[in-house]
Each structure stands twice: as structure tokens, then as C-alpha cells.
Amino acid sequence: HGQYPDSAKSTPEINRNRREILNFAMASILGLATAVTPSARPVGAFENKISTQYDDRPKRRGSKPSDLGVLPRTDIVGEEYLGLKHCGAAPNCFCSTDKLEDDPDHSIPAWIWPQDLGSDLSKVFAELTTVINAYPPGQSNVDGGGFKIITNDPKNGYMYIQFESLKNGYIDDVELAFIPALGDRAIQVRSSSRLGYLDFGVNAKRLNYIAKALRAKGWDAKGVDFDTHANYAIQNQLV
Question: Smallest Cα–Cα separation from 91: which of 220, 219, 11, 204?
């Protein structure tokens, strides 16, 4: 009835056609996978890393958490709010949307932009972009693997940056977000390690450097105070 038009062909020709169909199908699948998944970063890490000395060492970058961003969260008493991802128990994370009374070990103040920037998020995020791009990989012996701004969305008030350690390639996730319900001129901040338990001060040193640069531009940006975060400092052998 014509359902199998190739039934009269020779065996070699049938096999050849099958290979062509298989190759076409595989190419289509690979093309689809490329289209729907983020492009992988080259093995050489970020372009602004400080050295190629450890390029041949296996990297432990970990997986990007699936629930980053400004999302509905639930506080310790079960009330919902819009915020950044909770830190969890490990002393390797800080987040300004984790309430101080709920989690004093991980909560830090939001960064308040100066009044002269008004309510123009494009100006606010332009200043944040300038400060982040001026960050020197390797300062205080952290982030030697470099960094990259992955998402910069002033319209929606959100920035996402990845920082990498030099030797082992650990990736830390940093988020900056404007959430109107949490303050008129407040940028919410989160910096966290993906892997391990301790961070040996990496997240604090990163945030404190950036906060200091913002203070020089008139921001009220307090960073991480080891007096109020003594547990973090002690566990990470910083004092």
C-alpha cells in the first residue's frame, strides 16, 4: 500500500539511509539541547582571573541553585514575603532579606543608595555595575578565578554575579536586588558559597570590599561586621 517505499531497495542502500536518518535525528537533538540550555563556560574560567597557574586542576564549581532570584519566601513563623534565597545553616552565606531576628548569623543590612540618585533604577544599577566591574579579583586573597555579571536587569531591579576561586574553581553566587516592599532606596544583598561548609571569610571579604567602594560613592553600605557575626568569624578562623 506504499507505506514502506524503501522496501525494494538493496540492503546497503537501506543501511545508508538509516544512518542518514539517525545522523539527522542526532543533529536535531543536539541542536535542540543547545537551544534550551545555557551555554557552558569554557574550561579556562572567567577572563579576568589573575593567573592560569591552576588551569589544569579539576574544578569544583557546583550547580547553580534553582531558586535564586526574588521569589516568595517564608519566614520562621510561616509568613510569606518577597526576598532572596535563605542562607541555611552553614557559615558561608549572608543575605539581607533573612530577618535579623530569624537568623542573626546570616542577616546583614541592605545597601542604601544616596538620595541624589532619586528613584531611577537605571542610575542605581549603573553605579552598581561600575563598582562591580572595578572589583579586583584576588583582593584579600579571594576570587582569584575572576567574576562575571551574568544578569543585569535594571528595569526589574536585579543583578546576578558569579565569582570563582582560583585554585579549585569554587563558584559563589551574588545577588543584588531592589524589592520595593523592603525599602525605598534599599538594595538587598546575598552572597553565598555553593559547596562546602566553611568559606574561610571569602563571602565577608567580598561584600566588605564592595560595600566600602559604595560608601565612597555616598551609599550607606555596612557590609559584614565580625563583632555582630562572631560565630561566622570564629568558625572560619578569622579571629
Answer: 204
Distant-in-sequence, close-in-space partners of 222: CB < 8 Å, separation ≥ 6:
108, 109, 111, 211
Q: Cell numbers of 97, please?
A: 532579606
What is the C-alpha to C-alpha distance for residues 66 and 75, in angstroms, rounded to an integer?
19
Distance separating alpha carbons of residues 201 and 92, to the nearest angstrom: 8
8-state DSSP, 115:
G
Residue 208 is classified by DSSP as H
Span of 37-46, 96-105, 143-152, 201-210 with lowest mean pLDDT? 37-46
Q: Convert the pLDDT of each residue in 99-117 to its tens digit.
A: 999 999 999 999 999 999 9
Distant-in-sequence contacts of 210-216, Cβ < 8 A, 24+ apart: 210/131, 210/132, 210/135, 211/111, 213/131, 213/134, 213/135, 214/111, 214/127, 214/128, 214/131
62 with 195: CB under 8 angstroms? yes
pTM of the model: 0.81
Burial 193-232 (b: 16+ CB within 10 A, else e): bbeeeebbbbbbbbbbbbbebbeeeebebbbbebebbeeb
With DSSP H G I counted as helix, E B as strand and the rest as coil, what are the percentages for the chain, rounded to 5? 30, 20, 50
Written as nine digits, the cell of 124 is 542605581
Tens digits of residue pLDDT in 144-166 = 999 999 999 999 999 999 999 99
